[in-house]
Amino acid sequence: MAGTPFHTNVSLAGFHFEDFSLTFKLTAGIVAADVGKAVTISTAAPNTVKLAGADDYIHGRLATVEDRTIEGTLVGAVELKFANTLPIKSGETVAVGDTVVGAGAGEVKTRKISTVATPDYNANVVVEVVGLVATVVKT
Question: Is 0.85 topped by the overall pTM?
Answer without folding.
Answer: yes
